[in-house]
Q: What sequence folds into this?
């Protein structure tokens, strides 16, 4: 399923460590590549809207890059999951993980991997 080398390289050590979903969302809000341990139980239409909102949020945050600096990642805490959005050149990497896991060590590993991977 992996079309981009980066998602596959992240999958190798992220899934199974509390990460339920790992996907690459284009700047147009389309899911272009993903791997999942859990399909999250939301409809296809809801997923499309969710990924469009992730892309829109990242675009809005870029408006402040000149004054505040670029965004490294954002975390959204929900009742059941933590959602991490990491801007990459081709869009946004979305990581959905169990709330039972510590988020920052996983984010650190992802950012280290992204330094070696081009999207």
A:
């Amino acid at each position: 399923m992996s079309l981009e080398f980066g998602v596959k390289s992240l999958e190798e050590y992220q899934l199974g460590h509390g990460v339920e979903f790992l996907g690459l969302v284009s700047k147009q809000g389309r899911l272009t590549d993903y791997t999942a341990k859990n399909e999250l139980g939301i409809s296809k239409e809801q997923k499309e809207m969710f990924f469009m909102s992730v892309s829109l949020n990242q675009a809005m945050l870029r408006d402040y890059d000149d004054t505040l600096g670029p965004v490294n990642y954002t975390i959204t805490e929900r009742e059941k999951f933590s959602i991490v959005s990491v801007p990459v050149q081709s869009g946004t990497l979305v990581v959905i993980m169990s709330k039972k896991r510590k988020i920052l060590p996983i984010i650190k590993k992802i950012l280290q991997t992204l330094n070696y991977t081009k999207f």
